[in-house]
């Protein structure tokens, strides 16, 4: 008996082993045949048949199933037939737990989160009502209009309707991208489908339980809805945070990083579904989106491999899903008794029409809501959006779960499988095949006229460069035997003809009728003159000296003929000029911002910015693209200059010893982030100018708009320069640490290039080469995370630069006086975040602010900035007759630290002999600015300060002192700040504050019973001051890169022309370090920042 049992067990194990091997045989055969079909499709039918590859795989699986069902008696002997039969009876849980997690995570992880964030309101307004409306319409139809023999209940109808409400964007999005349709439209379709999947799977699980479990109550349904809709996303975000935290601390570990994402996908899905009872799909979507937002947690050398690995995984999963679906369909409908008739095909066709009518109704009803939410969809795009409701992988998986569930009656399962499979088939064939034609018919594939203009100029540049290369090749003796007629098939003209044929455009025709202009014909001198107008003498007074900066917007060039030597006017006869001008400006700004995002990724690869910094830069770029504004990009960066609320709370309790140590570290990290953001943005000027220099055809688009955009970029760059200079001057140790870190990273990059070169020349073997590169990568990773791993501990343990010591007001005091004032003012220390108002015009004030660090601007004059050492509001505090602020002052683009100064402290300052002149100069400066600007309108703020500090004669008559006489010559000015003076000739009395100019020799006597403060200077002093400041402000020059010294390198990369090694991808980046060797045009510190620093010291 025991022998019989052992034999039986061995036979069973042998059969199971054969069954498993047979399944692998069928799956591998299906994958290989599908790949062969894919090759044939790409080579011969790609541009002839608009058919989805998934349909081909489905037909292939169906064909295999039909053949297998027609072979009688061979199942037990043939391994292939045995495996095919096993797959047709596969467990629904295997499909759910093996295939679904990979599809969901890949869709969410490869989504552009920045666009999803911008379209989030629109997506929610479309997806949530859309699923409910679509499910309701289909349910009403199947319950009331289906034949009587169906006898489907409301629960069954809701389950059927929820499955048919899912959408699969893969096919339609790919077609839209190939056709050149709007990127925002394809992103909306993709994000709407992603949210649809989460909602439908939640409804599916609840409705499926309602059918199987008759005791499922309303209360339990409500609890499950809240638990799954809230618990699922919350759990996914937590898991995404943990995954990002771990990946951020792994550097270039290809196997580990890919395996973590793969393993976490299954782990999170199972824990959410089986252990926590929440929506596994919503959890995985949330985790994928969170990781997509922090996609730079993946190492630079792993991102490309990561994208490729997941692309292969989803490709295989798609093949397996549709192959198994075809096998199950074949076994369900061929050779066995079913409850289906030909009538059911007609019902399926009616259902196909119904889902499109319901989707068109949803888009039509929700169109006002879509436009209200800020999504710029026109009517043509709405047609595509309504037609894009394809059903695919998600619906197939759900219906397989129903069909393979034995707890549901067989007739219902068969009808579910039949109808939904036909709907999937119809949408993939009809909608998928006709979408490309519909896009072309509506004219959405051509893009806007403005984008076509830019494309035309880009193709002109490619043609001119190719022509130059051909001429060089013809002159080369090595190409003497080339058949140039055959070579014509590989010229840009031939490529454009093929492009026009594929996309049904006429670009080649437009390019042929446009006069050509080669790069040699363009005046590079014109570009260089235009590229840096601020360094000319006419613009030299744009920025002032010392701690006041003033720049004049009127001085920027707005002459639309500056680029006239290479301007080619486009034909606007058929366009509204204003609309065309606005659209063209938006197009140029969008492309400019795209160039900036690529440059930011280059900086990250070169080790100049951290992953967190890059994420912020890319997010702000994407939002600026949505607003089509360069200024918006800078404004968003300034928002990140603000200290977070939790850090502001720590700063308020900085006197606590242990909290002070933590606060210093957190503040240090925030300042480093600010420096990195400002430095990265600072290269904005070079990008657009390099576009003009390297692609001069770009200027043919619209000269006037190019000028305006370039000027806007220059002014924003000046703002960034001011912030950088203030950070360098105010936080010297932070600046030193950041510059040291960057230099170390640059050196390591150069070392990696040297190692590659030594390996290529045979000086290093493979083991030595690999080992040294790993050591270099380890050091680079350590530098990037040094703020968390303790590299700057030595600096953090040292006392930070005291802000009090940076103030010139207290430089000449004795040590005892410095200690006294320092202790007094420390209790009055305040922080102001960027955009926060210090004083408001017209409001009562009893305090002034002595600026310690940061930049303050006057709202009534945005061109003037105040920084360390100036006392804002001192004029209102000094003038006892009025305590109202004359102007509004706010923190501009950086954090501002200031001491509050009240009347008692001001009197203490004035009573100190070493500070008296400086304080009165500050009061006089603000008085002249606010009260007497018109008589000296030729001088700006900085020039007035130079006039008071260096040229004006200062008079001070204390009470009960000797009589003070002021002698004025012809063309001299007298500014009486406070007190009363008497003119000698006619006993005329003049009370301060007042400004007068005399045209003859005049004497004034000061009153003996009042304090008298006065200044005198000549008109010639004003002219000299004006000229001196003009020559002095060249220190803040925006010099051309060609004039910068060879050994002066910048912190961010410029376009040196050697960019072939850099391949920006959606998951960006590079596999080699060779491009670091070509950084000849990279500057370590912006030139104007260096100049100002040396002039200060």
Automatic annotation (TrEMBL):
Classification via Pfam families: Na_H_Exchanger
Annotated Gene Ontology cellular component terms: plasma membrane
Cross-referenced InterPro entries: Cation/H_exchanger_CPA1, Cation/H_exchanger_TM, cNMP-bd_dom, cNMP-bd_dom_sf, RmlC-like_jellyroll
Places the protein is found: Cell membrane
Listed transmembrane segments: 20-41, 53-74, 94-113, 120-146, 230-247, 267-291, 312-333, 345-370, 382-404, 416-439
Main location group: membrane
Protein name, entry field: Cyclic nucleotide-binding domain-containing protein
One GO BP annotation of this record: sodium ion import across plasma membrane
Gene3D superfamilies according to UniProt: 6.10.140.1330, Jelly Rolls
Domain Cyclic nucleotide-binding residues, every copy: 809-910
Membrane topology: Multi-pass membrane protein
Keywords: Cell membrane, Ion transport, Membrane, Sodium, Sodium transport, Transmembrane, Transmembrane helix, Transport
Any one GO molecular function term: potassium:proton antiporter activity
Organism: Rotaria sordida
């Amino acid at each position: 008996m025991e022998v019989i049992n052992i034999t039986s067990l061995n036979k069973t194990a042998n059969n199971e082993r054969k069954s498993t091997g047979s399944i692998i045989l069928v799956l591998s055969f299906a994958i290989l045949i599908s790949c062969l079909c894919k090759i044939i499709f790409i080579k011969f039918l790609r541009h002839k048949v608009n058919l989805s590859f998934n349909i081909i795989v489905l037909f292939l699986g169906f064909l295999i199933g039909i053949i297998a069902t027609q072979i009688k008696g061979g199942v037990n002997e043939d391994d292939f037939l045995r495996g095919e039969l096993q797959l047709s009876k596969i467990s629904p849980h295997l499909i759910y737990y093996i295939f679904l997690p990979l599809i969901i995570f890949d869709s969410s992880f490869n989504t552009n989160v920045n666009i999803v964030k911008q379209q989030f309101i629109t997506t929610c307004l479309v997806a949530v009502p859309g699923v409910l409306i679509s499910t309701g319409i289909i349910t009403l139809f199947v319950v009331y209009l289906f034949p009587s023999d169906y006898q489907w209940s409301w629960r069954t109808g809701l389950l059927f309707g929820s499955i048919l409400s899912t959408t699969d964007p893969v096919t339609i999005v790919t077609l839209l991208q190939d056709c050149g349709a709007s990127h925002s439209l394809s992103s909306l379709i993709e994000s709407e489908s992603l949210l649809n999947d989460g909602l439908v799977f939640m409804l599916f699980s609840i409705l499926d339980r309602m059918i199987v479990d008759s005791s499922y109550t309303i209360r339990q349904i409500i609890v499950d809805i809240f638990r799954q809709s809230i618990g699922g996303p919350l759990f996914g975000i937590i898991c995404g945070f943990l995954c990002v935290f771990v990946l951020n601390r792994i550097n270039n570990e290809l196997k580990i990083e890919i395996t973590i994402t793969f393993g976490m996908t299954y782990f999170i899905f199972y824990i959410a579904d089986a252990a926590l009872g929440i929506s596994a799909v919503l959890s995985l979507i949330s985790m994928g989106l969170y990781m997509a937002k922090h996609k730079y947690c993946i190492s630079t050398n792993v991102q490309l491999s990561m994208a490729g690995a997941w692309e292969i995984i989803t490709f295989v999963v798609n093949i397996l899903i549709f192959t198994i679906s075809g096998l199950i369909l074949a076994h369900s409908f061929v050779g066995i008794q079913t409850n289906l008739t030909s009538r059911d095909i007609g019902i399926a066709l009616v259902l196909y029409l119904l889902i499109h009518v319901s989707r068109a109704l949803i888009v039509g009803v929700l169109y006002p809501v879509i436009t209200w939410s800020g999504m710029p969809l026109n009517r043509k795009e709405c047609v595509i959006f309504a037609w894009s409701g394809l059903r695919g992988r998600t619906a197939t998986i759900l219906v397989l779960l129903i069909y393979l569930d034995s707890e549901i009656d067989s007739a219902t399962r068969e009808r579910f499988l039949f109808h939904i499979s036909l709907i999937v088939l119809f949408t993939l064939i009809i909608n998928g095949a006709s979408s490309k034609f519909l896009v072309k018919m509506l004219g959405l594939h051509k893009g806007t006229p403005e984008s076509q203009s830019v494309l035309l100029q880009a193709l002109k540049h490619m043609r001119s460069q190719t022509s130059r290369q051909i001429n060089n090749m013809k002159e080369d003796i090595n190409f003497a035997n080339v058949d140039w007629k055959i070579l014509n098939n590989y010229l840009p003209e031939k490529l454009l003809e093929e492009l026009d044929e594929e996309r049904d455009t006429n670009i080649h025709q437009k390019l042929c009728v446009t006069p050509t202009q080669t790069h040699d014909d363009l005046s590079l001198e014109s570009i260089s003159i235009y590229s840096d107008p601020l360094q000319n003498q006419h613009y030299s007074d744009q920025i002032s000296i010392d701690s006041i900066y003033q720049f004049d917007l009127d001085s920027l060039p707005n002459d639309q003929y500056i680029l006239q030597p290479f301007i080619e006017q486009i034909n606007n006869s058929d366009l509204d000029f204003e609309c065309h001008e606005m659209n063209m400006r938006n197009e140029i700004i969008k492309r400019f911002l795209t160039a900036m995002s690529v440059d930011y990724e280059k900086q990250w690869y070169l080790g100049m910015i951290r992953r967190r910094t890059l994420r912020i830069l890319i997010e702000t770029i994407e939002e600026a693209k949505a607003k089509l504004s360069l200024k918006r990009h800078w404004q968003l960066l300034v928002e990140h200059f603000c200290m977070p609320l939790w850090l502001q709370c720590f700063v308020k309790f900085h006197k606590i010893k242990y909290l002070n140590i933590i606060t210093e570290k957190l503040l240090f990290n925030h300042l480093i982030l600010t420096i990195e953001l400002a430095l990265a943005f600072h290269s904005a000027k070079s990008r657009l100018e390099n576009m003009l220099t390297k692609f001069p055809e770009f200027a043919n688009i619209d000269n006037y708009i190019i000028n305006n955009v370039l000027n806007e970029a220059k002014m924003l760059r000046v703002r960034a320069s001011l912030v950088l200079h203030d950070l360098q001057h105010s936080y010297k140790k932070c600046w030193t640490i950041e510059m040291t870190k960057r230099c170390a990273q640059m050196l390591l990059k150069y070392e990696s290039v040297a190692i590659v070169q030594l390996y290529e020349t045979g000086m290093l073997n493979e083991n030595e080469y690999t080992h040294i590169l790993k050591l270099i990568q380890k050091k680079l990773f350590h530098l990037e995370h040094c703020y968390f791993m303790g590299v700057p501990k030595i600096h953090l343990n040292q006392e930070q630069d005291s802000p009090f010591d940076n103030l010139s007001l207290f430089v000449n005091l004795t040590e005892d006086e410095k200690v006294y004032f320092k202790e007094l003012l420390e209790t009055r220390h305040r922080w102001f975040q960027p955009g926060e108002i210090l004083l408001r015009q017209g409001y009562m004030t009893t305090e002034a602010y002595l600026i310690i660090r940061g930049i303050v601007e006057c709202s009534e004059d945005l061109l003037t900035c105040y920084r360390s050492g100036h006392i804002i509001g001192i004029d209102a505090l000094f003038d006892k007759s009025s305590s109202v602020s004359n102007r509004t002052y706010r923190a501009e683009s950086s954090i501002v630290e200031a001491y509050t100064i009240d009347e008692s402290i001001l009197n203490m300052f004035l009573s100190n002999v070493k500070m008296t002149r400086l304080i009165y100069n500050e009061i006089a400066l603000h008085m002249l600015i606010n009260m007497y600007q018109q008589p000296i309108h030729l001088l700006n703020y900085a020039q007035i300060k130079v006039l008071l500090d260096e040229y004006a004669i200062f008079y001070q008559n204390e009470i009960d002192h000797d009589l003070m006489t002021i002698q004025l010559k012809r063309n001299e000015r007298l500014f009486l700040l406070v007190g009363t003076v008497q003119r000698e000739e006619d006993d005329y009395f003049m009370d301060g504050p007042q400004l007068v100019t005399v045209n003859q020799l005049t004497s004034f006597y000061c009153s003996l019973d009042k304090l008298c403060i006065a200044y005198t200077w000549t008109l010639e002093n004003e002219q000299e001051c004006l000229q001196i400041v003009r020559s002095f402000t060249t220190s803040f020059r925006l010099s051309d890169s060609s004039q910068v010294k060879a050994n002066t390198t910048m912190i961010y990369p410029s376009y040196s022309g050697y960019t072939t090694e850099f391949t920006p991808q959606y998951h960006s980046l590079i596999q080699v370090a060779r491009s670091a060797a070509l950084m000849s045009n990279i500057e370590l510190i912006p030139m104007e920042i260096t100049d100002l620093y040396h002039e200060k010291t």
